[in-house]
Specification:
Structural class: alpha/beta
Strand content: 15-25%
Radius of gyration: 29 Å
Number of helices: 24
Largest sheet: 8 strands, mixed
Distance between the termini: 30 Å
Shape: globular
Helix content: 40-55%
């Protein structure tokens, strides 16, 4: 590695590398290959907004602390030219040859897990929306099904032959899937079950304890790799397995009014859902609304698809050409599977966003589940109905505790300033950003906060793509009013499409004029002081704000003479661009918040007067209330 003074030093460790896809395709790169990389090192970015993906934390969990953007990739001699990756590539190639890219990648993901193929993002999202993302990851379900099929097929063989085949198949499948924690857990439990069921010396003498086996598997895996305790796949695998072991039978008994097949088909996904729900809420802040409805038809398609897929995959290891022919009839199952998942995911409110809960709430939820399962006195006193009420109380109780009556959050959104205002339980969103910013920043923030209804939405500018993201937000949240500052004659096509979508949804729309007010409760007053672009003043809790947004210096000069401006401004919010210093002096600005980087001149003005200037691009989203100001990074630290 080259230092800033061009001297070289040797370093070692795990590095996250990205490069142009053309480089990897031309070089035919694969795992365990030695390469020489030339590029730029960078520190991974932490999450700057609530609900955003924390790239830095993700890499830390993988044992990596830096990234490299590679401009040149040159393969070197050495490394391994074989491994599980080569077998996965062989199977995936046979699937794609027989089914096409989309369906071939889907089958590879269903059979071998996410490492086997790069699935279309829209298909991944559809499975995730209906709570069936686990089907795309190699898990205990896959191992149990595979071992069960092999056990049935080899039941007429000698015991040692049957054991050898089951162990060989398990070893091969774990190699193909990359030894993920969930597969290893299922593999260990599968070996234990095989020993008890097939070993003559143990039959009738040793009774398999599923809970004990699960606990032993957890201990063995965590001794081998302690970091797996923070792995979400590991956590979900054990929670789901525990739910199946302790929850399926009681639920089947409570569904005895249904035919046994239907009762079992409903009880299995329900048990797994209940025991993984606290983890899903604490990590994702959402509940898959139609999971129970989607699961039975999906499993009816998935079971024969996986059994056939396993068989074709093993054929592909020997003859990819023959496998590509054998796999073609599976399109009769894959097509309805894709259609079913896409149809359910397109339903309104396919996910119910609760907002992210605390670790303490998650532990209390699991405590209630453990109590009703293993504590007879609790079970007799509260039963499942009372336990459900306790869990609902744990889930929604903290939300009923009164928070600040007014809270203003400036998101880290670069040169497109975005502001979220909450006043007495009502929410207003100022600016949406472009579609990408809306999907990656605004929507995750709203979901993390559990916000499903906006009392109003405001567009401060109609230029460029700065407010084209309303199209992405409309399907996810309901809006009761929409305001902007006019300027439709100079509006961009992106904004006009967004405005058309707003009006098509039947949302009341108003063009603000200087002096017009936006109603949002008695504790907060919003008034337009300039239009096209829109500039607003805000008064709340004794503080006066100027919401400047992206207004340029010419607009700022006009504000100096506006009779609608207050005598003093406590807080200035803008995109971090150029600010006329006379504006800061004239209105005695006491503090500032920027969504993006600010100029050194403006930073120096605040620093010289010892007045706070918060840059959301550095400190993360900035939240103001009467209790004080805090930033995302400071609250996490």
């Amino acid at each position: 590695m080259l230092n800033s003074d061009q001297t070289a030093r040797l370093v070692s460790g795990k590095l996250y590398v990205t490069t142009d896809p053309v480089n990897s395709e031309e070089q035919d790169l694969h795992p365990s290959q030695r390469v020489r990389l030339t590029g730029s090192l960078y520190l991974p970015s932490p999450a700057l907004n609530p609900g955003a993906f924390d790239f830095q934390a993700y890499l830390l969990r993988q044992g990596s602390f830096a990234g490299l953007s590679a401009q040149e990739v040159v393969p070197q001699a050495g490394g391994r030219s074989w491994g599980g990756w080569a077998l996965r590539r062989r199977i995936r190639g046979a699937f794609i040859s027989g089914l096409g890219v989309r369906e071939g990648n889907l089958l590879a993901s269903l059979v071998l897990g996410s490492r086997a193929a790069q699935l279309d993002f829209d298909l991944q999202d559809a499975f995730r929306e209906i709570g069936m993302a686990h089907a795309l990851a190699a898990s205990g379900f896959h191992v149990s099904l595979l071992v069960g099929v092999v056990f049935v097929l080899t039941r007429k063989l000698a015991v040692r032959g049957q054991q050898a085949i089951i162990l060989a198949v398990l070893g091969l499948y774990m190699t193909l899937t990359g030894f993920s924690p969930s597969v290893l857990r299922a593999g260990l439990m599968g070996v234990a079950a095989m020993a008890v069921l097939t070993e003559p010396r143990l039959q009738g003498k040793v009774k398999l304890n599923p809970l004990g086996t699960l606990l032993l598997a957890a201990v063995v895996l965590l001794v081998y790799q302690p970091n797996w305790i923070t792995d979400l796949g590991f956590q979900l695998s054990f929670a789901a397995t525990l739910g199946l072991l302790v929850g399926t039978a009681p639920m089947v008994s409570r569904l005895r009014f249904l035919p046994p097949t239907i009762a079992t088909a409903l009880a299995i996904p329900l048990a797994a859902l209940i025991w993984t729900l606290p983890l899903q809420i604490v990590v994702f802040g959402r509940i898959p609304t139609y999971s129970l409805l989607a699961n039975p038809p999906l499993m009816a398609l998935l079971l024969p698809l996986l059994v056939a897929g396993f068989g074709v995959a093993f054929v592909a290891l020997l003859s990819p050409g023959l496998a590509s022919l054998l796999v073609q009839p599976l399109t009769l199952l894959l097509t309805p599977l894709i259609n079913w998942v896409g149809w359910i995911a397109s339903w309104p409110f396919s996910s119910y966003y609760t907002g992210v809960i605390s670790i303490l709430q998650c532990l209390l939820l699991y405590g209630a589940l453990v109590a009703v399962t293993f504590w007879p006195r609790w079970r007799r006193a509260l039963r499942w109905q009372g336990t459900a009420l306790v869990m609902i109380g744990i889930l929604i109780g903290p939300g009923l505790w009164p928070g600040p009556p007014v809270q203003i959050t400036a998101l880290a959104s670069g040169r497109t300033p975005i502001l979220a205002i909450q006043a007495e339980g009502r929410h207003l969103l100022v600016n949406s950003g472009d579609p990408r910013l809306a999907e990656l920043t605004v929507l995750p923030y709203l979901r993390q906060r559990g916000i499903r209804n906006l009392a109003g939405a405001v567009s401060m500018t109609s230029a460029g793509s700065a407010n084209g993201g309303w199209v992405s937000l409309l399907p996810a949240v309901s809006m009761h009013q929409f305001w902007d500052g006019g300027g439709a004659n100079v509006a961009s096509e992106s904004y006009l499409r967004a405005l058309e979508a707003v009006q098509s949804a039947g949302i009341p729309y108003q063009v603000l004029r200087p002096g017009d007010r936006i109603p949002l409760g008695e504790r907060l007053s919003l008034q337009a002081v300039h239009t096209n672009p829109l500039v607003l003043t805000l008064e709340t809790e004794g503080s006066r704000w100027l919401l400047l947004g992206s207004a340029g210096t010419n607009v700022q000069a006009e504000l100096s003479g506006s009779p609608l401006m207050p005598a003093q401004i406590n807080w200035l919010w803008w995109d971090g661009g150029a600010v006329v210093l006379d504006l800061l002096e004239r209105f005695q600005v006491q503090a500032g918040i920027t969504s993006g980087p600010s100029s050194e001149i403006v930073t120096a003005w605040f620093r010289q007067r010892q007045r706070p200037l918060y840059g959301a691009d550095r400190s993360g989203a900035v939240t103001w209330s009467r209790r004080g100001v805090h930033t995302l990074r400071s609250s996490l630290e």
